[in-house]
Design a protein that fits this description.
The protein is an alpha/beta fold. 51% of the residues lie in helices and 17% in strands.
Amino acid sequence: MIKKTWFYETNLKNYPELQETLISETLESKLELKSYFLSGAVGYGKTTQAILLARKHINECYAFNFNNWHYSTEPNFVTFTRLLELLNDRQFGNEELKTKAHYELKDIQNTSFLILDDLRCNFTSIYQKNMVDAYLLELLSIFYADRKNKIIIITTNNLKKDVSKIYSDAVTSRIFGLCFYVELKGKDRRISTIL
């Protein structure tokens, strides 16, 4: 029996469409990297693909505990908007917000499986861009150093060249040295399912 965790309950149980796969088996068999950078326009299925990849990994990596079967690694799902809020709270919040943000940001760094959803390349200020760049450098350095044991899946609406223009060379080198780059193509799956 597999334990019904938050990830299962919120993402897998109620969505039968997550049984499909968007990356072909041929392509998957060639991959040596465990981490992914999924790029594509709005509605192309990046978050769905991230969840599918997480599900595949979870199915391969469940472990036995004395009481029951459980997932040895369950993804920590963080939106880029939430990451910005945490960085802002750590910098400008009151003492309680600073402390809470500090520990949540550390949890993100210490997780063994991270889905960073909707990485953006537009910022409200140079300061915000530099703050995000500095945190991503720290985060990706940790994941790169332990890449055999840690997995990160990043989704974005931006292409590789756009990410390389906005983020520092140190950040982009770690992203694309760590992650297999996949550009999803097609049409907006949300709109096409409504019509």
